[in-house]
Amino acid sequence: MMGYAHPEQVANGLHTRLYSRAYVIADNKLQSRVAFVAFDAGMTSQLVKLEVIKRLKEKHGNMFTEQNVVLSGSHTHSGPAGFFQYLLFEVTSLGHIEQSTEAFVNGIVESIEQANANLQPGTIKVGVGNVNEGNINRSPTSYLLNPESERNEYTHDTEQEMTVLRMEDLNGDPFGMVSWYPVHLTSMNFSNLLINSDNKGRASTLFEKQMRKAGETLGGKESFVGVFAQANLGDVSPRTNGPICIDSGRDCDDLTSTCGRFPRPDPTKCVGFGPGVDMFDSTDIIARRQLTTATDVFASASEEVTGSVGFIHQYVDMSKASVTLDDGSTVSTCKAGLGYSFAAGCTDGAGPPIFTQGTTNGTVFWDTIRDVIAQLVCKVQPTDEYYQCHRPKPVLLPTGYMDRPRPWHPEIVDVQMLKVGQLVIAAVPGEFSTMAGRRLRKTILNKAIEQGMPDNTKVVIAGLANVYTHYMTTNEEYEAQRYEAASTIFGPHTTRAYLQKFEELMGVWANGDVGSMDPGPSPEYSPQSQSPIAPRPAVDEVPAGVSFGDVMDDANATYVAGDVARVSFYGANPRHNMKLGSTYLEVQQKVTGLWKTIFTDADWETKFTWWEKNTTAPTDITLMDTLFDLIAHMTGKRFDIRKALEMEEKGEFPMTSGDGNEGLLKTMEQAGLLRNEPRVDSNSQKLSLSVESYVSIEWQIPEDAVGIYRIVYHGDSKAPGGRVTPFSGYSKEFMVEAPTGSGYSVENAGA
């Protein structure tokens, strides 16, 4: 799964569906249009954006291009991985997963086309409100490094405001809502193995449910589209109770987010919690806090959005962007690199305990490991100037140089804005911290008004848009090198570079010079170079005398509303058919003798889990393990990081760090740490042997669900020749009774 970079977090089922929600907005003459898409994913990848545009152009010509389409990921950490063209993001998934990519691309294209087909005259109104206890700052000590005078302009160390758009038809009837508010989608923690859209996805489905029209009864099938889009969430957590040391109950260390001192401070024991009793409850609570504000602002929004519809876009090489400092001198951003504290993770999800936040000096051991990596995957070795460029960040992964067999990080990124009347949407390729985002909004707003836009101009940030480049912190926050700063991949001047570029584009835009603007260097687009490594789904089998879909453990005869009904079936790998627009399960109610679908796998109340016979999930795999797995698969050279750590602990590791040290790999071979290994690529993949697998379906029975029900499973089995065959399985009928004193009965349920 994508987000936490925990290799053991391998999806085994589905809690909520992931959706792409699109709006196409055009001026009244249909001469200019823009598309804004918010979709349930960890982030947008450049591969997905470029493929979406390619397919839209094939059908619609230049109606939709890189310039007028914004794709903004929600940042759920419980979605699928493997949809990137840059290798760093595919470490935990062990390479590319074509099914993930196709699902995202197809869903996004379809949502844009539906929105475009449904264009109608209407009115947009905008409003702003505060979300109550919807987030906290997870790096508050870094925030405090920003100038006091600047901090005094704000009442909180996170954004509290939510900006809401209300879409109405000419009769004043609403048909859509878009909101922007920053909060990480880490309410679901990394122990979760079910695909889940987290708090913003939950908020969207709740809003759409409350806006249902007559006859709309199933989740995901509503005509109303409600978007809870992402903003400057970089240092913003939904775990509003804050972090605590889980081994002692004490406060974590403020600067490093660690617990204890022996044998070393441990970041894995410092964990953020809240506000609920478990991760599902916390997801629901944070969703409902956003929902409450969005509902209130949506109902009261009265400021009409008026003016033109437009867009501006430029590709920028962020590996060498020129930046002007306050004293007039010029510096440059750096080729991409991730710091030591990146590997430490944060209080929403820590990495291995060998790294901590706040690290500003490297070690000989890890610098040597870094140099081994560089020798294996860099065609040109990183220079001393490169490492100095990133200071005070000690670079752990020199990703800007890592280019074997293909680039590990992007260099060319989108800088883009959409304009809808007095609203400016700034699409940013990653996660701006709270203060970095405030600086960006202020810069754009001041320039817009200076160039003649109205005083009521509003600027929102659309985070994780178009391509993912990790984080953007202020230069003051960068000095502390907590997780967000160590993940600011283009160095200490990254945010200032973006501020100056957005300000420049706003000036060009306001002067009407967009047509003559340099589009910038085009990013590499090579979908054919993707290399899947993880095995494809195996052939399915069932025991003798059993058919696919047969029940293993059936439902009880009777439940009380509020209980959980569970049924397990002999199943098949759900990857054979992702059932886009369909469902793996149904909860059906018998109404006047006929079965009526009440819930599907799109509903919060259901959970779908799949597992293989005699298979246990890995529990002791780290990001470093899978990093060197991927390097071995790609290069044919296996470095034994576990053995290296053991040798370092004993004082036996061969410390021969040195940039460009040509004897380094030979030294590692002699120490028994590096060996040759056959490369793995898509052409050498072999299908796994046939496997027996099972499915469990859970239904959290609502308090008012009285009547007669059954649970239905829909699957698809794969035969040895590759043929995939659909099947279904059914539980027995069961009765749901009302809780004592509830006033519900089977009769008034219509059973």
From TrEMBL:
**Which named protein is this?**
Neutral ceramidase
Q: What is its EC number?
A: 3.5.1.23
Cofactor(s) required for function per UniProt: Zn(2+)
Q: Where is this region: Disordered?
A: 516-536
Biased region (Low complexity) positions are 523-532
Q: Which residues form the active site?
A: 237 (nucleophile)
Q: Which GO biological process entries does UniProt record here?
A: ceramide catabolic process; long-chain fatty acid biosynthetic process; sphingosine biosynthetic process
**Signal sequence segment:** none
The family annotation for this protein states: Belongs to the neutral ceramidase family.
